Amino acid sequence: MKLIIYIYIYIIILFIFIIVSKIIYLKVYFQKLWITNTNLPRGYIVSINKTFNCLIFYIISILNNNTCVTFKKEFHTFNDTQGLIFKKDSYCTSHIGNVFKNKPQTITLSKGRYEDTYLILHELGHALGLVHEHSRKDRDKFIKIHYNRMSQGGNGNFFIFNNSYYYNYSTTYDYAALMHYTAYSFATAWYKFFGYPVMEPKLNEQYIHMMGQRKKMTFNDYKRINLCHCNWCNWVVNGTNAYHNDRTIYCENSGYPDFNNCKRCLCPTGYTGDLCEKVIESDSECGNTTYKTEENVTTLIYNDKMNCIITVETDSYYKINFTILYVNALYQDKICTEDIAYQFKYREDKGTTGLLLCGHHQKHIKFESDRNTSLVFYKGVEPH
């Protein structure tokens, strides 16, 4: 059984072959990568400058709006309870998770980084228990580390985090995680100049352009924080990586219970509904956006300013092979991000950022779905 879909897009051009493969998928179990903390740091003090106070307030509001963790500003120094103190130093550093029971812990920021919103959020992620994505126990399945390309002392930033108390809550490796370094982090000037990365993706070489984004926390970044600190809906067994057998709600497409309302789920990009059972509606100009694989050829043409989410599916226990023939997309920065890219959610964990494509590609790009359903995100910038 084969399906070939041609997609023609002007201004931003994308050609796709989609072929069904008769390969039965296997259930995957993931490594544990988390620490459970019930005593959260609540207060924070900023000891840098008044301008930085405003920025920290904004960054804290990002966490408050997306997690159950609520911080409040303290106006007086405190030493007898948990909390966070922001200080300037020569380096940007943070402990991973709570380290003290009855006193605050420090996040240090170097000069020139006081206005870097998402670098600060990165350090806050550490304080709440997030490890670097490239330090996960299962990272060697997804990236190759070239230690010989690192500057002296750089290898300490790439150790696998083996603490048995850490869990990933069945979220898979996310190349676009806020907690991921760039591919060239800690590379010597020589290797960086000639384009030899320290980290190379194993799933697909195009993932290299997604690593190190600093625009937002991803869905799975927030999911790990919330399932660790906000397991109020009894979704997982506390202290383990396992889902609860008697949970009262079953979220679909890698969603998880809303900590504000256990009768509905928080959904990944592209999904909606109380159980994340629906795909978000596309613009009316997109036309039909659901394609079931058959033995024929389907041609799709996108050449206008519109947003489309295309569902491609086949029979159960089959996978889909994608071949991208040509791409000419926006590339506003050195790193390809979700807000400007074409995205292909073909992995089993729909909470993980899909393969993002930016810029110009003439070389064929191939990948295979983990399951029998995939999403394709098209963002048309302007008509041609």
From TrEMBL:
Residue numbers annotated as active site: 123
Key word Transmembrane helix present: yes
GO molecular function list: metalloendopeptidase activity; zinc ion binding
Domain Peptidase M12A: 21-231
Cofactors (names): Zn(2+)
GO-annotated biological processes: proteolysis
Keyword line: Disulfide bond, Hydrolase, Membrane, Metal-binding, Metalloprotease, Protease, Transmembrane, Transmembrane helix, Zinc
Protein name as it appears in the record: Metalloendopeptidase
